[in-house]
Every structure is written in C-alpha cells, then in structure tokens.
Amino acid sequence: MPNRDDFSPKTKLAVALRAGFCCSFSGCGKMTAGPSDESPTAVARTGVAAHICAAAPGGRRYVPSMSARERSHIDNAIWLCADHGALIDRDSVTYTAEVLRAMKRDHEAACARAHNSGSRPNALTADLIAIGPDIVCLGDIVGIDESQWRLHLKHFIIGDTGALIAFIDRFKTSSTVDRYLLVNAIGDGRALAAAPSLTKDETGYVATCPVKRRSSRIEAASLPTDLALSPEHDLMLKGGDLATVSGVAALPQKLRTALSFQKGDSPFDADFGTRLGEYYELFRKSPWLGRLMKLEVIRQAAIPYSDSLTNHEYTPLLCVERVHSVEVLADAPQDSWLPVHVALDVKGLGRSEHDILIFIPQDPSAPRSAVA
Question: What is the pTM of this model?
Fold first, then answer.
C-alpha cells in the first residue's frame, strides 16, 4: 500500500524481542513464534508489529501531525498475535492509543520481571473479569464489537459456574445496578443489555455478553463545585466562609469521596456506593486485593447509576474514562484510611495519577463512611 510509514525489519524484530515473542494484548500472552516443520531451521511466526497510531491516512488512530519517522518508530509499535492485531483495528474507541501504549508498557514490564526471575510472562498477563456482583474470574477478551463482548473464562476467583448460570437465569428480575461487565485488562466495563450466554470449550467457558453503549463522561474541568476537605477530612474555611473546590482541582477529592462511600450507606439507595471495604475485609491478606479493588474502581468509572430523585444517569467518578492500575500502599488502614495509588485516563486531562486515601470501615457495627 503506498504512503504507508511501515516499520523496518530491525524495528519489527526489536519490538518482538522486547515482548518475548508473546502477544502484548492484556490477558493474552500467546506465543507468536516457534519451530516449523518445513525444515530443521525454519521458524513459524504468527505475530505482527502493529501500529498504535495508523501508518497511513484512513487507518485507526491516525494522527496527521505525526511525522513519517514517528509513525515508523518503535515507540509506535506494539507486538500482537494475529487475532488481537486484527481486533485493535476494528475498534479504535475501546483500543485508543493510550490503552495500547499502556498494554505495551505493562507487557514489557512483565517480560522484564519474568526474564529476571526465570518465570514465564504468560503467567503474569491473565487478569480479572467481573460479570455482575457475584462472579469474578481470571480470563481474557476474545472479541469485541459495539453490541457484544466475548470473554474466555479460565478460573473462578469469586463464585462458580453455578453462580454464573443463576445470574443468567435471574437477569431480567435482577437490579439494574447489578447488570454489568468489568474487565481489568482494559480498565473498562459496560452495562449489560441482556443476559450473557455461555458455551464451553476444552480450556474453559466462553461468555458472550450483550452490552450497552459506552457511558458518557464529563470533562474534568466541568467537575461540579463541592465543599473542600482538608487532608484530615475536615471542612475548611476561606475568608470566613466554607471553602469550595471545583473543576480539575476537585478531581483528587472526588476520587477520595466517591471511592470512600460504601455500599449500603445511602439512606436513599442501598445499592449506591463501593464494595472496597467488603473486598478489603475478605481479601486483605490475599494477592487478589489490588486487582479486586481495581475492578471496583472500574465499576465506579464505567457503570452508570440512575438517581431516582432526579432521573439523572451518571457514572459515580464522572470524568474517569479508564483505570490503568490501583496499588495499595500500606499493609493496613491507619485510623480507617487506606492509602492507594491510582492511574487513570481522565476526560480532558489524559493519563492522571494520584495518591489518595480511601475510607475502609474497621467496625462493622459502626457507620461505614466518613465522608462529608
């Protein structure tokens, strides 16, 4: 194809080697090179050096301002298996340049850790998927289009096959806030449009999930005005009046207050709020804690809540478009506050990272939130 800024053979080899010849797509890790039967020296390769931003006009994620050198540089390359190479070029809304760069960065970091420790990178790529509130599995994405996501479910962390079948059976009578799909690997989720369907193959189950359109977000600069809270979680005064905060400056506080509001605390809606306190209580000594907390932050970022008083639908985190990571920074909360680091994509800001405190209730009999 003319006017394409393709990668050189040297660049293709370098990006493949940095990926360990394994697919960089989150949750995949498929080997893309191996021996061929054609001859004792032949090699079969099934991977591709895919462009993060398209090589030519009309391609997915094409950026006109990029130079030919930038388009053909290794920084614009990600190593993928043939299936995921095709997938990212069918959906540039889900697979933005930022998402693909994060996948590449995370996979190369996993390869570096595996190389240094002598382990396999594939063991580090699988991540969690939630289907409703009672099913959490290890798995990966096998297909996405605008109306459905297909997921390969490998191992149940919470729930089991019976719980998933029960969720499917009672879908029509379940609460709308429980009809969701969350995928850690891409830091995103969708509300379910209908009950999932389930098939079995030799390595596990494949769930086909009809999904609704992506929920809208607001610009960070449009975050509404709120009363400002001090680092000690108290109201503050400014010029004799209660201090306020809004717009981009309100983002850290919005994250802290929204994630600290526990499910069951609202006198108006028992379903509103997070399950972070519940996850901490159940999994605080487990290696799954950080990944489960990430799932819950994704739910607050991606799944809309409908306010019955105003008939207004919004995502609790309002402006967060994608969740890259959630890292717990302490072994235990101090005075019921747990420090965490979050890396997010925020509408109007791009990638945004914050160290915040999340309220974790310590006494189940006490009121479970401490947010003004």
Answer: 0.68
Domain that holds residue 228: 220-359
Q: What is the largest CA-CA distance in the chain?
A: 83
Residue 307 has pLDDT above 90, yes or no: no
Of 327, 309, 320, which Cα lies nearest the Cα of 348? Answer: 320
Sequence letter at residue 34: G
Number of domains in the chain: 3
pLDDT of residue 123: 45
Specify the pLDDT at position 121. 52
The residues, ordered by sequence, that sit 6+ positions from 90 with a Cβ below 8 Å of its Cβ are 144, 145
DSSP 32-82: -EEE-TT-TT-EEE-EEEEESS-SSTTSTT--TTS-HHHHTSGGGEEEEEH
pLDDT tens digits, one per residue of 149-205:
999 898 888 898 999 999 999 999 999 999 999 999 899 999 999 999 999 877 778
Nearest to 272 by CA among 263, 259, 281: 263
Name the residue among 195, 144, 167, 192 with its Cα closest to residue 26.
144
The helix or strand, by DSSP H or E, that contains position 257, with its residue range, turns out to be helix 251-260
Q: What is the CATH number of the domain that holds 343?
A: 3.10.450
Angle at 182 between CA 62 and CA 163, to 5 degrees: 150
Res. 371 pLDDT band, cuts 50 70 90: very low
Report the C-alpha gap between 215 and 321 in whole angstroms: 9
